[in-house]
Specification:
Hypothetical Protein Pfu-838710-001; alpha+beta; 4 helices; single chain; 9 strands
């Protein structure tokens, strides 16, 4: 799977939320997420705990401030199997860092709008426009740019790294 994503820092999530509502993005509620990143060199592997829905994500993505293509693979993990999975991956790879966040999720067509409050580093907006076989990639890029412009993200500080990198580097 792949998506086009961008992340920006913000001090005013409520303003972005109101803009998301104006473009008729659907509010899918608040998610509590714990992401355990494993030591796999420059690659990225994380185990996401999210209540009933948990999964392992391996992804490849450049670290640029502009919108970037991300290729990812997801394996759903049943809730009863999460502790065992975490222990096995910790033994095999070791833990790089753990990221705790509260995420309010809005969806506009193929674009996920994440309003994130990340423990110890602040508030961010992350967009992920999921590439779908039913749509032309150029149309999805247009949608991605529409959401960026509608939310006013071009006026905010763009972030090139993942939350795990920001925590490790102390921002």
């Amino acid at each position: 799977m792949k998506n086009l994503e961008i992340k920006v820092a913000t001090s005013n999530i409520e303003e972005i939320k109101n803009k998301a509502i104006k473009i008729s993005a659907t509010n899918n509620g608040i998610l509590r997420q714990i992401d355990t990143y494993f030591l796999v060199g420059k690659r990225r592997l994380k185990l996401r705990e999210q209540g009933k829905i948990n999964y392992l994500v391996y992804y490849l993505r450049g670290d640029t401030k502009e919108s970037k293509l991300s290729k990812y693979y997801v394996l759903n993990i049943a809730k009863f199997f999460i502790k065992f999975s975490k222990k096995i991956f910790t033994i095999i790879f070791g833990v790089k860092i753990i990221v705790n966040k509260k995420r309010e999720l809005f969806i506009y067509k193929n674009t996920r709008i994440h309003l994130d409050e990340v423990e110890n580093i602040g508030t961010y907006i992350e967009l992920e426009t999921v590439f779908n076989k039913n749509f032309k990639e150029e149309d999805l890029v247009v949608e991605h740019n529409f959401v960026i412009n509608s939310l006013g993200l071009n006026n905010l500080e763009k972030i090139s790294n993942s939350y795990s990198d920001l925590l490790i580097n102390g921002i």
